[in-house]
Amino acid sequence: MNVASFSRDEAAVTLNVAEAFLARLHGVRRNGSGWMALCPAHEDRHPSLSIHVHKGKILLRCFAGCSIAAICAATGIGMRDLFSDHSSPNEPLAIYSYVDEVGALLFQVLRYPGKKFKQRRPYGPGGWIWNLGAVRRVLYRLPEVAKAKSVLIVEGEKDCDTATAMNLVATCNPHGAGKWRTEYSESLRGKHVAIIADADEPGRRHARDVAASLFGIAASLKALELSDAKDLSEWAATGGTRERLLDLIDQATDWKPSATQPSTAEGMGGMRFWMRSRNSSGASSLFLNPNRRSRLPGSHIRTPWALRIPRHT
Q1: What is the pLDDT of residues 10-35, one digit of tens each?
Q2: C-alpha span between 175 and 155 (Å, rounded)
């Protein structure tokens, strides 16, 4: 994206909105400085929707003639969201509500431009206390998690919402990587769990720690990293689909603790190491045993994911 012509705060707002918009489209591919995608406002078989960012605005053009209003309506994004000047660094880009098992609000996480976050908890009628204090910490989208048989674990609320748009149940812990608590694992007891790691060392370390906490608690457990994307939202924005994601999960091997000696690799804190091996389907499966792939090729591993989540909605 060409963001040199507008301010850093405007750029942050516009980039976030653009990512959210692209995540709702199908068939997204790079086209010069912008993208082409299947237009959601008509039955499009060949990408006819052009998307560009210019001077703080998201520019849309359907070469089949669909109006911008129709495109926005089909994606659930307001027309005013295509312009950065309606937001400011003091206004949240998103508000994520954490609720208990019956849907009662416990606290909220507010996302601001520049990936800045604040937390608050309700106080009295319409009031807020801008810290979490001793409030109970829970997983994001806990009621949906409680009802589901299969659950994705990602690193942040934005990726959870991306998965929800794919009609998948996903969750994360509050406060991001490195903040998983042992008690969170109980909410996932007996479920089929797939962990999607962010493509950086903190993300991989977080995925490893979550997997270690869930081993022996989850009915089945997998961990993978999506190729050529930093997280699920970026992967979806560049054309990743629900069906593709389920296939990648199916092809990943089951996660198990390593029987090897701890690695001394820098940044891993003396813990067991991950082996990343890109399979033919385009994902990087996260292994703990360097000899495991030769014995258990991913293409031979099938899990209850494909059986428990409908492939068509």
Answers
A1: 455 456 667 778 888 888 988 888 88
A2: 9
